[in-house]
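Quiz preparation item.
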């Protein structure tokens, strides 16, 4: 193996990617999704020599037949498979060294994963002051939604007609006698 590479950093990166996005993960095994993320984030996938398909094929090749994850040892075998493909002009040892350098010390990136769409069209469509007809009834004067009361006509089962103004006064009238 490569002597000058700091194996602790490589193991550390392996563990960080192994637990990424999985609350039950122990950090000892890496699933296929996180293996692909590691290769993408650490620029092992370059789009020309190594593609995401190559990464998936190598993952399937090194893992145990019934397993869905790879151990750290299998991870190192997978890197040995990918290294000569990624660094074509180098010897096998130099290529392995170079691929370790790409990965060591890296962690999963979450930057730019989801962006909030903020365009003029979104602003125009969500401006409640421009709503007309039955839709404007769904919001109060400030533009805050009324919830279920704004969507449905809620029936009060009081027994009185809606336009009757003295609702609730019948019992009082009958007690007075």
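Solution:
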């Amino acid at each position: 193996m490569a002597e000058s590479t700091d194996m602790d950093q490589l193991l550390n990166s392996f563990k960080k990617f192994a637990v990424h996005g999985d609350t039950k993960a122990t950090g000892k095994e890496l699933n296929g999704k996180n293996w692909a993320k590691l290769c993408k984030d650490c620029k092992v996938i370059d789009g020309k020599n190594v593609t995401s398909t190559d990464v998936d094929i190598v993952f399937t090749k090194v893992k145990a037949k019934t397993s869905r994850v790879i151990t750290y040892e299998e991870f190192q075998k997978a890197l040995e498979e990918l290294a000569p493909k990624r660094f074509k002009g180098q010897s096998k040892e130099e290529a392995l060294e170079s691929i370790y350098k790409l990965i060591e010390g890296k962690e999963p990136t979450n930057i730019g994963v989801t962006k909030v769409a903020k365009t003029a069209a979104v602003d125009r469509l969500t401006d409640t002051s421009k709503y007309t007809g039955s839709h404007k009834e769904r919001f109060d004067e400030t533009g805050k939604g009324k919830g279920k009361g704004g969507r449905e006509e809620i029936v009060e089962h009081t027994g009185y007609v809606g336009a009757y103004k003295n609702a609730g006064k019948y019992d009082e009238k009958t007690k007075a006698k």
